[in-house]
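Input (structure):
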């Protein structure tokens, strides 16, 4: 065999070896890619675990968000009461209100208008439509109820919700003006300058179906109150007719 034939034979064998190496390397790469693809997938247990963790975190975030939102709304109403009290102070100064001294006094004697919020607006101490007249929760609820009544009646009612705050007592609906006047006069005797003049009961969770419409020891409710001396208190009400 000539040296030329030997060289060609060696070149042929070298090519075969190289082809085998390339084929083997491609096979290893493909096998490695398959292993990576297989390992990158999640088992059913892992998917359930991840889903449970996400659900738990979402629940925690929702609870935290709800709590922060409720506190923010309560702060808004506290600030509203402080702003309303500035108007009350000026009104009492202008109308020479008497400081409670333990005897029954009427709204006008302590230097307050009645109806309370309507009088402050009517005499220009608070601007009509001012945001301080409303609890954000109460305004939304009252507007929804008004819209429901209008849908039921099939016509639009020309009613204006002056304020979502009200007198802090659950009194019989019969002759409310007289009921409120008598209740206030009695509470002035008991509370003096600490008598509550305005209330906000909207910051409560929904009451259960079996709960009565007014607070009781078994079904109490919280109420934010503004007192005659300007103090704003967060009180637990267990008797709807009691002085706050």
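Output (sequence):
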């Amino acid at each position: 065999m000539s040296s030329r034939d030997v060289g060609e034979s060696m070149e042929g064998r070298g090519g075969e070896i190289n082809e085998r190496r390339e084929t083997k390397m491609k096979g290893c790469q493909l096998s490695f890619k398959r292993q990576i693809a297989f390992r990158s997938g999640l088992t059913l247990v892992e998917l359930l675990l991840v889903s449970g963790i996400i659900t738990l975190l979402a629940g925690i975030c929702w609870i935290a968000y709800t709590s922060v939102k409720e506190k923010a709304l309560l702060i808004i109403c506290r600030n509203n009461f402080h702003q309303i009290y500035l108007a009350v102070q000026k009104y009492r100064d202008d109308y020479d209100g008497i400081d409670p001294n333990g005897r029954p006094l009427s709204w006008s004697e302590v230097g307050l208008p009645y109806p309370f919020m309507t009088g402050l607006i009517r005499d220009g101490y608070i601007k009509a439509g001012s945001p301080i007249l409303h609890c954000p929760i109460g305004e939304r609820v009252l507007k929804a109820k008004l819209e429901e009544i209008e849908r039921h009646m099939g016509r639009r009612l020309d009613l204006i919700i002056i304020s979502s705050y009200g007198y802090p007592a659950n009194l019989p609906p019969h002759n409310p003006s007289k009921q409120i006047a008598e209740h206030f006069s009695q509470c002035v005797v008991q509370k003096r300058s600490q008598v509550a003049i305005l209330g906000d009961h909207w910051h409560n969770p929904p009451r259960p179906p079996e709960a009565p419409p007014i607070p009781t020891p078994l079904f109490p409710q919280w109420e934010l109150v503004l007192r005659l001396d300007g103090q704003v208190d967060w009180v637990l009400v267990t008797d709807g007719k009691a002085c706050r």
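Notes: The CA atoms of residues 104 and 185 lie 5 Å apart. The radius of gyration is 38 Å.
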